[in-house]
Write a structure and sequence with these properties.
This protein is an alpha+beta fold and about 110 residues long. The protein has helices spanning about 5-20, 50-60, 80-90; strands at about 25-30, 35-40, 45, 50, 70-75, 95-100, 105-110. Helix 2 (about 50-60) packs parallel to helix 3 (about 80-90). The longest helix has 17 residues, at about 5-20. This is Cytidine deaminase.
Length: about 110
């Protein structure tokens, strides 16, 4: 993988930190078009379940974000869940989505 832009590296670090802090299956972070960042983890409750990226997008939208520049998800899975991709695409058709492994190494760029 090519070297990351410092702003993209920041969201990977935020996603990794959120995942570690909560011992969650996934951690995610997004950067909105104003440069603000939002991090979240997987939510797995009896009443509802959402991916970490869906939660990060929800945090951004509820804070007034109108678009996204980039997103990152840290997961042990070999893919980004379609629901996660769709959550990002709802706000930004061309935003970069980074998938990193638990060590923070980017494995895929969507």
């Amino acid at each position: 993988m090519p070297e990351l832009d410092p702003e993209d590296e920041k969201i990977v670090i935020l996603a990794r930190s959120a995942r570690a802090r909560n011992s969650a299956a996934e951690g995610a972070a997004v950067r909105d078009t104003d440069g603000r960042t939002y991090a979240a983890t997987t939510v797995d409750l009896p009443s509802f379940k959402i991916t970490a990226l869906q939660a990060a997008v929800a945090a951004a939208v509820s804070s007034g974000a109108e678009g996204l520049e980039a997103a990152a998800v840290v997961t042990a899975e070999p893919f980004v869940a379609e629901a996660s991709v769709q959550a990002v695409r709802d706000l930004a058709k061309t935003a970069t989505i980074l998938r990193a492994d638990p060590s923070g190494t980017v494995q895929e760029v969507l």
